[in-house]
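Quick start: read one record
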Amino acid sequence: YTLRVDLRWTWGPGMPTRLTKSEISKLAPTAAPYEVRDEDVTGLLIRVEPGGTRSWFYSYRVAGRRNRLR
């Protein structure tokens, strides 16, 4: 049994930050998609796609299962 974790969504450009209007406007697209989590609101994050699309998500757990609202 091997546990595989995709670290692209945890470190790098996706470090927690206060998601203000000015900080969101600074998020530039990269070659790979990345996520930035809000440091004030647990579970709130924004995903930036290579084409520049930004999508909001809310990540939460129920009974140990990770769920995500878009």
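The two ends are 32 Å apart (CA to CA).
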